[in-house]
């Protein structure tokens, strides 16, 4: 854990140093979306108007998809994985909406909002009900304990968020929206499933999704309580299949052509084993949508 925190601190300091040299605009946009809209007012206002979530009434979602070496039979899933990779900690970026940062003086903590515990995260639930357009992606995450023979970790909360197909983040560069953010609680197999869209690629970053892991739903009230903050790297082949051919991803084509995993400021210093673990396995098509699985290894 100390090594993960040290790595996160070094990355954060390095990013802040380079961003400060480039000016205020980069400090806000370096890890964020493609828009520069001012989130003042709507950022904290939308969340404040939504009320407070009840952390004791959520029911863990049972997944019917498998990740890693897990096997699935009907609604019962058993893990048969004998090895797993501990994922490195990564920056949450400037757009987590988890109470750890502010934009134009407003601080947003969507983790305390009623409705944040949900499986389908495509629609906004604060202020509007706009559904984010894009290629449907069903993502199953399996949380495993790397210190205990990769045993499933149940009862943990996972917060997932990412940009829309235009590269914008809800509550920030898409300030009136709250889509593409949600929390699920791991079931007895350590699994959660989210229905979302394939994220766009914005300038300077490899296509990715953010996530935070919490000990329980009751502790998932701020990103400061997370036991792991990291990111998932979208598979190159799927990016190449989606961006040129799916509606609405036009800007992602040139952005994706200009970036690589090795030069990305988040994934660039990870080992090949870590990158493999951070890249979801995906199948499907633009027309039918994609199914994705990833294993999150964490030492507990």
Q: What would you say about this model in short?
A:
With 300 residues, this protein is of the alpha+beta class.
Task: Note the main attributes of this structure.
alpha+beta; 13 strands; 300 residues; 6 helices; Protocatechuate 3,4-Dioxygenase, subunit A
Residue runs with pLDDT of under 50 for 5 or more positions: 1-33, 35-41, 52-81
Shape: globular
Query: What is the end-to-end distance?
Result: 9 Å
Indicate the mean pLDDT.
Answer: 81
Strand content: 15-25%
What's the CATH C level?
Answer: Mainly Beta
Give the C-alpha Rg.
Answer: 18 Å
Structural class: alpha+beta
The CATH superfamily is known as: Aromatic compound dioxygenase
As for the number of domains, it is 1
Q: Identify the CATH architecture.
A: Sandwich
Number of strands: 13
N-to-C series of helices and strands: HHHEEEEEEEEEEEHHHEE
CATH fold description? Protocatechuate 3,4-Dioxygenase, subunit A
Main β-sheet, in a few words? 5 strands, mixed
Helix content: 10-25%
Separate helix tally:
6
Region (Disordered): 54-109
Biased composition (Low complexity): 54-89, 99-109
Organism: Variovorax gossypii
Pfam families: Dioxygenase_C (PF00775)
Q: Can you walk me through this structure?
A:
- With 300 residues, the protein is of the alpha+beta class.
- It has a single domain, classed as Protocatechuate 3,4-Dioxygenase, subunit A (Sandwich), CATH 2.60.130.
- It is 19% helix and 24% strand.
- The chain contains six helices and 13 strands.
- It has helices spanning 2-22, 24-29, 42-49, 236-242, 250-257, 272-278, and strands spanning 71-73, 76-78, 98-103, 106-109, 136-145, 151-152, 157-161, 181-185, 191-197, 208-214, 228-233, 281-285, 289-298.
- The strands form four sheets. Strands 5, 6, 9, 12 and 13 form a five-stranded mixed sheet that branches. A four-stranded antiparallel sheet has the order 8-7-10-11, with no helix packed on it.
- The longest helix is centred in the N-terminal third of the chain and has 21 residues, at 2-22.
- It is globular, with a radius of gyration of 18 Å.
- The protein starts with a helix and ends with a strand.
- Residues 1-33, 35-41 and 52-81 have low confidence and may be disordered.
- Keywords: Dioxygenase, Oxidoreductase, Signal.
- This is Intradiol ring-cleavage dioxygenase.
- Residues 54-89, 99-109 have a biased composition (Low complexity).
- InterPro entries: Intradiol_dOase_C (IPR000627), Intradiol_dOase_core (IPR015889).
- Residues 54-109 are annotated as: Disordered.
